[in-house]
C-alpha cells in the first residue's frame, strides 16, 4: 500500500497555562504520484504538520501511515532509516552545512546513502534549478533564493519516494517559483514521487492535484 495518511492527528505543545493545540484532529491523505498543497497563514500549524507527516516529530495522538506502516510505532533507529531512504525534506532553514561547498553537501549525502540520482538526472536537476555554477561556493556566499534551490536539489538528489517541502518557494521570484513548482509536478506525474508542499502562497494552488487548507491547526480539503 502506497501513500501517506494522517488519521486524527493532534499536537499539543507545552502544559498548563502554556498549553497550545497546534494541530487538532487532522485527517490528511496523499496518494502516490500526487502533488498536494497545504495552504495556511503564518502560525496555522503548517510546519508542525509537515514535520509530523515525515516523522521528524511525534504527534500527541493519532496515526501517521507511510506506505501502510504506522511510523509512530517504529523504533528511533527504524524512523531514522525511513527518513533517510523514503522521505526527503526541504525545510525553511535550508539546513545546509556551513563549512561545506554546495558540491560537498551532495558528496556528504553520497557517503551515507546509496541509490541517489544518476549523474545525468542530477545534472538535469541542477540545470533546471539554475545552480550548476554555484557548486564550489559556500552557503554564506549564496543568496536566500540560491540556498533554497540548493536545499531543493539536495532533497531530490537522494531520490526519495516522498518529498516534503516547507515554503520551498518563499525566497524565489515568480519565474523561479513556477520553475520549481513545474519541476515538482513533473517529478510527481512522471517519476511517481509523492509530494507535499506547505505554503501561505495561494498562487501555487493551480499547480496542485489536491489542496488542503489549514487554519488554527484544523485541516480541511478544498
Ligand atoms: N516547539 C513549540 N513549542 C510551543 N509552541 C510551538 C512550537 N512549535 C510551534 N509552536 C506554535 O504552534 C503554532 C503553529 O506553528 P507552526 O510553525 O507549525 O506554524 P506555521 O503555519 O508553519 O507558521 P509559519 O508559516 O510562520 O512558519 C504557532 O502558534 C507556534 O507558535
UniProtKB/TrEMBL annotation:
Top-level taxon of origin: Bacteria
Entries under PANTHER family matching the protein: CELL DIVISION ATP-BINDING PROTEIN FTSE, LIPOPROTEIN-RELEASING SYSTEM ATP-BINDING PROTEIN LOLD
Source species of the chain: Liquorilactobacillus oeni DSM 19972
Keyword terms of this UniProt record: Amino-acid transport, ATP-binding, Nucleotide-binding, Transport
Family: Belongs to the ABC transporter superfamily.
GO molecular function, one term: ATP binding
Pfam family, any one: ABC_tran
InterPro entries xrefs: AAA+_ATPase, ABC_transporter-like_ATP-bd, ABC_transporter-like_CS, MacB-like_ATP-bd, P-loop_NTPase
Protein name as annotated: Peptide ABC transporter ATPase
Biological processes, Gene Ontology terms: amino acid transport
CDD domains: ABC_MJ0796_LolCDE_FtsE
Record-linked SUPFAM superfamilies: P-loop containing nucleoside triphosphate hydrolases (SSF52540)
GO cellular component: membrane protein complex
Lineage, top ranks: Bacteria, Bacillati, Bacillota, Bacilli, Lactobacillales
Domain ABC transporter: 4-222
Amino acid at each position: 500500500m502506497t501513500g501517506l495518511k494522517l488519521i486524527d492527528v493532534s499536537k499539543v505543545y507545552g502544559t498548563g497555562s502554556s498549553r497550545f493545540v497546534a494541530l487538532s484532529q487532522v485527517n490528511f491523505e496523499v496518494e502516490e504520484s500526487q502533488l498536494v498543497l497545504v495552504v495556511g497563514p503564518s502560525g496555522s500549524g503548517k510546519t508542525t504538520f509537515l514535520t509530523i507527516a515525515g516523522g521528524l516529530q511525534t504527534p500527541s495522538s493519532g496515526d501517521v501511515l507511510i506506505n501502510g506502516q504506522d511510523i509512530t510505532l517504529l523504533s528511533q533507529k527504524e524512523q531514522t532509516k525511513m527518513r533517510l531512504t523514503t522521505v526527503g525534506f526541504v525545510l525553511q532553514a535550508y539546513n545546509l552545512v556551513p563549512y561545506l561547498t554546495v558540491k560537498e553537501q551532495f558528496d556528504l549525502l553520497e557517503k551515507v546513502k546509496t541509490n541517489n540520482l544518476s549523474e545525468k538526472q542530477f545534472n538535469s536537476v541542477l540545470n533546471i534549478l539554475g545552480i550548476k555554477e554555484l557548486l564550489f561556493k559556500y552557503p554564506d556566499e549564496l543568496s536566500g533564493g540560491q540556498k533554497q534551490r540548493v536545499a531543493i536539489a539536495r532533497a531530490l538528489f537522494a531520490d526519495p519516494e516522498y518529498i516534503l517541502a516547507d515554503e520551498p518557494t518563499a525566497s524565489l521570484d515568480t519565474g523561479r517559483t513556477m520553475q520549481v513548482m513545474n519541476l515538482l509536478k513533473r517529478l510527481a506525474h512522471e517519476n511517481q514521487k509523492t509530494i507535499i508542499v506547505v505554503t501561505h502562497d495561494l498562487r501555487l494552488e493551480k499547480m496542485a492535484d489536491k489542496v488542503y487548507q489549514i487554519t488554527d491547526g484544523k485541516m480541511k480539503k478544498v
